[in-house]
Design a protein that fits this description.
This protein is mostly beta strands and about 325 residues long. It folds into two domains: about 35 residues; about 260 residues, TolB, C-terminal domain (Neuraminidase, 6 Propeller). Helix content is about 10%, strand content about 40%. It contains one helix and 25 strands. The strands form six sheets. The chain has a five-stranded antiparallel β-sheet with strand order 1-2-25-24-23, with no helix packed on it. The radius of gyration is 26 Å and the shape is globular. The N terminus is likely disordered.
Length: about 325
């Protein structure tokens, strides 16, 4: 049978040695050495790094960026404010990309076919925690190391864990664990319940100083926002409107809560001021504005803007200035 691709044909060492003397012996030795070296190298080759075929390059706009034929969403400022991690979906594959603000350059980080990848930065900006559905059918949490590109599963595949937020002050990860608001160490150990009842929570956010946790819940018939102490005590209801209020994000100084709401008939971004007890709408585009996040200095907000309501993939990442 002829040799297959990436394989070697058998070598008849007897005919080689006896047909050319010493020179053929040297030639034979060289061939055998090269074959052994190639086989040894091939045994140690690991999986190739993720390089998507013809990756879509975002178009840089005046106030953000837009990936053609893709849904851009769930953007997060890095702790130092120099980069934005965000998710794109092209109808088949979900990917996490990294955008360098000063250089206006993007690069892919993570690829998944399991669905949404919700993410949060580590306090030092070297890692991302994200959830992804595994073969068990349950969402699990992974840690992605930005410097070496490795992802590590940190949770038990027999349990459902998702929508984590990495606290900068305590280095704990707050998550929804089997339906319960909980926290754990970054290596997945010491999982502790914060609340002992489910409350049907979808999204959580920890204040920058680690004192408070904001979350949404529909246990009273409408999805509204609540705030508790990090130990689960002293719950305060923040919204009580006819629309859905969800996806809270704390301002860096802890005095405001950014969230999205459809109470006006369209999904827009709003800010709740704890000092004045007011709610202010800050986006007014025709499409959905969602998944907002504050810059570390509190002067900008990044979010997913549905700029083309006629397309399923008509959303882009936009950045707006915010005046305190």
């Amino acid at each position: 049978m002829p040799p297959q691709p990436n394989s070697f044909a058998p070598i008849n060492t007897f005919s080689l040695v006896n047909s050319g003397g010493a020179m053929n012996q040297i030639f034979l030795t060289t061939i055998i050495f090269c074959i052994a070296l190639l086989n040894a190298c091939s045994d140690n080759v690991g999986p190739s790094p993720y390089i998507p075929p013809d990756p879509p390059q975002p178009v840089i706009t005046a106030n953000g960026f837009d990936t053609p034929n893709s849904l851009d969403y769930h953007s997060r400022f890095s702790p130092d404010g120099s980069q934005i991690a965000y998710t794109i979906y092209d109808g088949t594959v979900t990917e996490v990309w990294l955008y360098n603000i000063s250089e206006q350059l993007t690069r892919p980080l993570i690829q998944s076919r399991s669905g949404d990848l919700y993410l949060s930065w580590s306090p030092d900006g070297t890692q991302l925690v994200y959830d992804s559905r595994t073969s068990s059918g349950l969402n699990q949490l992974f840690i992605y190391n930005i410097s070496n590109g490795n992802s590590s599963l940190i949770t038990n595949p027999s349990n459902s864990m998702f929508l984590a937020d990495w606290c900068r002050a305590t280095n704990k990860i707050v998550l929804v664990y089997n339906g319960f608001l909980s926290e754990m160490n970054p290596d997945g150990t010491e999982i502790t319940r914060i609340l002992n009842d489910s409350r049907n929570i979808l999204f959580t956010a920890v204040s920058f100083d680690g004192t408070y946790i904001a979350y949404d819940s529909d246990r009273n018939g409408n999805r509204d926002l609540y705030v508790i102490n990090r130990d689960g005590t002293n719950e305060t209801r923040i919204t009580d409107f006819s629309g859905e209020d969800t996806r809270p994000r704390w301002s860096p100084d802890g005095t405001k809560l950014l969230y999205e709401s459809d109470r006006s008939g369209n999904r827009d971004l709003w800010v709740h001021d704890f000092n004045t007890q007011t709610h202010t709408q800050i986006t007014f585009t025709p499409g959905w504005d969602s998944m907002g996040d504050w810059s570390p200095d509190g002067t900008q907000i990044v979010f997913s803007e549905e700029h083309d309501t006629s397309s399923r993939y008509g959303s882009r990442i936009s950045i707006i200035n915010y005046q305190q």
